User: Which sequence fits this backbone?
């Protein structure tokens, strides 16, 4: 398909030439039609105009000449005598090798056979005869026209006004009839034909207007509007809105924004019909859409009941159409969000397609719906129910409110319409006066559209957005810090590919520079580390900010340093976090004042506790590897004491030790390291951070997206399995995965689940008291919750929607901020009290979250 922009009704040759230049510069796949008949030029003036056009324009120009005798169908304004046509056209064709010529067949074929006996050769890639008229007129004239076209090796263009699915079926049959010609074009003029113009039924050329107000046929879109969709040579996959309102652009705007974000080759187009609803309309609609290879459609009023059961979604699957109803599931999701439990009665205002669709869907979800319909033109007595759902248009709401008993009290009111916003919708005002939560049509549309999204495109539907999002997920901070520490411990240069770029790694890099490191980081995709021969701490304290991992690893490396002592300082929160295991392992007294003063060259411990953190063990294992590499000891064995918590992080350390050439093994509580292959340079390729990916996975699970995880060596890559166990209602031990508590809490909040975490007392010792903050946040959102000595319980099963602005306390903890940000996508009035703290691990988190939201409808 080529895209032709019709120039319109320019008033002068100069205006036309200016528009030609602008259109041809807009996109390489756009052709331009020169409607010479609209200029009312004499043959000489027209020839002069064409002669001075730049030669490079001609291969992208379609010359259109409709003659004065064509009458109102062609709208021709040309003033010259038709008897001059052949001589003038011969000169025009000799001038340039035009892309195509559009000939007024209705007139030329009736000039005593003059046109059809034309013996010259058209100097153009294409020539075609045009036939504009009603479907009945085209049916009558088309056979004669095709005979003439074959005789001249020309194509055919037919253009007919359409207003119904029945007419689209007829036009599709005419389109099939001309498809055998070397060039065939079928134009469906009118709002009902808007999607047709993008489909295979349109033929080889499809037409757009130069700008608004200059359309040459009903339903013709403007160049500016369609330019974003001309990025490929293929036709876009088409998804339609089937209703009766030509002004409805709400879904069209939102779906097309989503498609552009995803890089999807798709368009969503409103195609209003004037058919009577019923089985015959459904038959015609499905037939022409099948011939046009439409991929899916939304069905709205008045056609939802035209199928065997209420339908708002159609999907083409192989050679058949699948039907679905996402309206009911959408309202059920809203009711659950509002705290209306399954099994409750729900009053549905209306008896049309939308009401019936909601009734069927709510019943399938376990609610007890009852329709409230008009009797004799008026609403009768309102049924009893816990919630009210209105499917009436905004214009009818005064009548609805008048019929509602003043003493009625619902737990929620859901309003399908969005032509009247909450500020002036009578139903909204009625609910507000009674302190009843009101949910408008925008929220309903979002829920049902995301259900359609899943049906149409499946789980892996984010397209280019997913690739871009994954690029912004940070590399593993844990792996990056261990790789840097191994270079320092062993005194071996290291190449770190794809390092984590966040506050903690920046702080640790600066600490290494204080120890004499040279770091080449011109390219942030890789770092080259050049350690000094000996590690000699500076006389001043090395600041570690809030980096507990850096503190515990660097403290352990003091055993390899010379000179000294090693002075370490940190933030107020870091000073509150456990450091005693480090001090005791070095043979020092606990509760030392800050800045910490660590003697250097002390002996490595033979045992360390994992009760409070695995990072103490990691630090000494790396220090042990350094001592082996430097020839200070032949091997190192470390016994793990206390409750084995976060043991997967110890295993991650051993994995990187093996990459550095060591033999490293763990047998339950005994870890041993021996020399292996002595490398002159370490090379580490850092994976994406699994604990950061967990937040994206929690978001994706809410909306049925495919997993963001791939095979990884980090223990927290088990998060998808934890999500499945959460959905099954299992109690979750986070003994080895404390960093997964915040994203699991977010998943429970977004999906209204109960979460019980056990064997994780160390949650209180993280960047914040995570157990306490997560319970506090759950209570603020109307859920139940309590802390336990080894974890916490939160239950969002019956929590309602948040109705006032709520800032959840993070204590500056990056993982709290990300968890609360996820919940904000479900409850727009909820936000963390601090957003900046995500820089500690995931600086681009807010950008990524926005990208995910923008890549979905609503």
Assistant:
């Amino acid at each position: 398909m080529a895209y032709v922009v019709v120039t319109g009704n320019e008033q002068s040759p100069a205006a036309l030439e200016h528009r030609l230049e602008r259109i041809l510069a807009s996109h390489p796949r756009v052709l331009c039609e020169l409607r010479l008949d609209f200029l009312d030029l004499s043959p000489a003036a027209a020839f002069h105009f064409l002669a001075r056009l730049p030669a490079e324009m001609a291969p992208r120009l379609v010359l259109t000449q409709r003659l004065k005798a064509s009458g109102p169908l062609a709208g021709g304004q040309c003033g010259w005598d038709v008897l001059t046509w052949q001589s003038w056209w011969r000169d025009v064709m000799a001038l340039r090798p035009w892309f195509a010529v559009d000939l007024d067949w209705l007139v030329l074929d009736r000039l005593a056979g003059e046109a059809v006996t034309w013996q010259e050769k058209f100097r153009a890639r294409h020539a075609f005869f045009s036939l504009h008229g009603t479907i009945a007129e085209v049916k009558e004239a088309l056979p004669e026209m095709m005979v003439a076209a074959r005789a001249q090796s020309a194509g055919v263009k037919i253009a007919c006004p359409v207003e119904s699915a029945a007419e689209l079926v007829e036009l599709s049959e005419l389109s099939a009839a001309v498809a055998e010609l070397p060039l065939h074009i079928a134009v469906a003029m009118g709002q009902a034909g808007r999607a047709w113009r993008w489909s295979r039924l349109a033929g080889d050329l499809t037409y757009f207007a130069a700008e608004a107000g200059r359309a040459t046929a009903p339903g013709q879109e403007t160049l500016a509007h369609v330019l974003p969709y001309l990025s490929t040579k293929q036709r876009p996959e088409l998804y339609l809105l089937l209703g009766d309102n030509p002004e409805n652009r709400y879904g069209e705007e939102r779906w097309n924004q989503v498609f552009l974000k995803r890089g999807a080759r798709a368009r969503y187009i409103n195609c209003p019909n004037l058919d009577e609803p019923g089985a015959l309309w459904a038959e015609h609609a499905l037939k022409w859409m099948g011939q046009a290879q439409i991929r899916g459609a939304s069905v709205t009023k008045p056609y939802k009941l035209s199928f065997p059961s209420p339908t708002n979604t159609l999907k083409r699957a192989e050679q058949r159409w699948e039907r679905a109803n996402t309206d009911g599931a959408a309202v059920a999701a809203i009711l659950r969000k509002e705290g209306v439990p399954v099994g409750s009665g729900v009053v549905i205002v209306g008896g049309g397609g939308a009401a019936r669709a909601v009734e069927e869907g709510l019943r399938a979800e376990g609610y007890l719906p009852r329709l409230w319909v008009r009797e004799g033109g008026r609403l009768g007595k309102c049924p009893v129910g816990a919630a009210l759902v209105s499917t009436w248009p905004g214009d009818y709401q005064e009548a609805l409110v008048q019929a509602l008993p003043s003493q009625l009290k619902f737990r929620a009111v859901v309003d399908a319409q969005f032509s009247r916003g909450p500020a002036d919708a009578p139903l909204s005002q009625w609910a507000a006066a009674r302190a009843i939560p009101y949910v408008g049509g925008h929220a309903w549309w979002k829920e049902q559209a995301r259900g359609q999204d899943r049906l149409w495109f499946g789980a892996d539907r984010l397209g280019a957005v997913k690739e871009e999002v994954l690029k912004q997920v940070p590399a593993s901070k844990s792996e990056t810090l261990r790789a840097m520490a191994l270079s320092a411990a062993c005194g071996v240069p290291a190449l770190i590919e794809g390092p984590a770029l966040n506050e903690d790694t920046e702080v640790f890099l600066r600490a290494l520079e204080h120890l004499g490191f040279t770091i080449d980081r011109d390219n942030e995709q890789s770092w080259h580390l050049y350690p000094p021969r000996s590690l000699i701490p500076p006389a001043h304290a090395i600041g570690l900010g809030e980096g507990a991992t850096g503190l515990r690893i660097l403290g352990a490396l003091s055993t390899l340093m010379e000179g000294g002592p090693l002075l370490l300082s940190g933030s107020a929160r870091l000073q509150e976090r456990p450091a005693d295991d480090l001090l005791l392992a070095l043979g020092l007294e606990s509760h030392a004042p800050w800045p910490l003063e660590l003697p250097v060259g002390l002996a490595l411990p033979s045992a360390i506790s994992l009760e409070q953190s695995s990072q103490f063990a990691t630090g000494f294992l790396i220090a042990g590897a350094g001592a082996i590499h430097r020839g200070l000891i032949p091997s190192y064995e470390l016994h793990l004491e206390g409750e084995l918590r976060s043991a997967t992080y110890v295993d991650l350390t051993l994995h990187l030790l093996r990459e550095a050439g060591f033999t490293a093994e763990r047998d339950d509580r005994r870890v041993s390291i021996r020399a292996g292959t002595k490398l002159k340079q370490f090379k580490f390729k850092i994976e994406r951070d699994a604990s950061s990916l967990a937040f994206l996975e929690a978001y994706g699970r809410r909306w049925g997206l495919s997993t963001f995880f791939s095979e990884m060596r980090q223990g927290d890559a088990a998060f998808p399995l934890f999500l499945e166990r959460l959905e099954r209602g299992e109690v979750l031990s986070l003994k080895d995965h404390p960093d997964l508590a915040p994203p699991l809490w977010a998943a429970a909040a977004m999906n209204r689940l109960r979460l019980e975490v056990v064997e994780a007392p160390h949650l209180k010792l993280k960047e914040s008291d995570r157990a306490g903050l997560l319970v506090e946040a759950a209570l603020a959102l109307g859920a139940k919750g309590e802390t336990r000595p080894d974890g916490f319980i939160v239950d969002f099963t019956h929590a309602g929607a948040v109705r006032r602005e709520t800032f959840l306390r993070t204590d500056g903890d990056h993982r709290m901020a990300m968890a609360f940000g996820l919940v904000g996508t479900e409850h727009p009035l909820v936000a963390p009290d601090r957003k900046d703290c995500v820089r500690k691990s995931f600086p681009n988190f807010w950008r990524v979250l926005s990208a995910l939201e923008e890549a979905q409808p609503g």
User: Anything to note?
Assistant: The longest helix spans residues 135-151. The CA atoms of residues 319 and 474 lie 44 Å apart. The radius of gyration is 36 Å. The chain has a mean pLDDT of 90.
